[in-house]
Amino acid sequence: MRGAKSRMQISDHRSSAMTEMHRATARSRWIVWTSALLCACALATSVHAADGDAAVQRALQQAISRPAPAQVDAQAVETLSFRRDAAVSARVQQETIRAFGRNPQQVADLEKVIGSGEMLREFDKILRRYGYDPTNLGDVLAAHLLISWEVVNDRDSRQSPAGQRAVRRQLIGPLAAVPEVAEMSDAAKQAQAERTAYLTMVSALTYQTLKRDGNRQALTALSASVRQGLQGNGVDLQRVTLGEGGLVTR
């Protein structure tokens, strides 16, 4: 009986070790994907509306140059809103999977989290907790800025609920005033929003994983990559602070 018990304990230890090894492998695989995603998706941090990129950059810079207004014009909210089309979502899902799946195993895993709709559903939940609308391009980009700020500065925006709510008020007005953005079709706004959602979620999930594992070196690299992506749009998140007025340049 003692021998049988010892063999069972050894078996349990082996099973536990194997489980932890698989988890570690999965985490490593996720970090590798993240590097590819963040590099390849850097352009998704801005709205690409024909020749309006410079105007969008100016709108972002204007938004964070001063505290949020008390209210947002209802017409601006309507301008950036869109109706979701399942066909557009399916197309963006497959584009994302094809772009970032480097081998059959990666494609299969990406199908689970992206193709299943799991990642986008989780993004929607986060936005609703902020009081944001996931079918509004301004709200999606505001969430991207807010979560990116957390990653770059290793901070938790939940410490400033009023600031979380203010960021959308900062961004919606200036963004809706860009003609090239205002003229975007529902499909174009949706596609841009969902590409940004995937980029944001990959960044956020990787940040959480690395922080849990205490991997400071990888966290520093992730922070630098996210910061660089926004600097391309004229926004340096290390020079921005979150308060009741939203994200405001120091």
TrEMBL record:
Keyword Signal assigned: yes
UniProt-listed Pfam families: DUF6683
Leader peptide range in chain numbering: 1-49
Keyword set, alphabetical order: Signal
Protein name: DUF6683 family protein
UniProt source species: Luteimonas flava
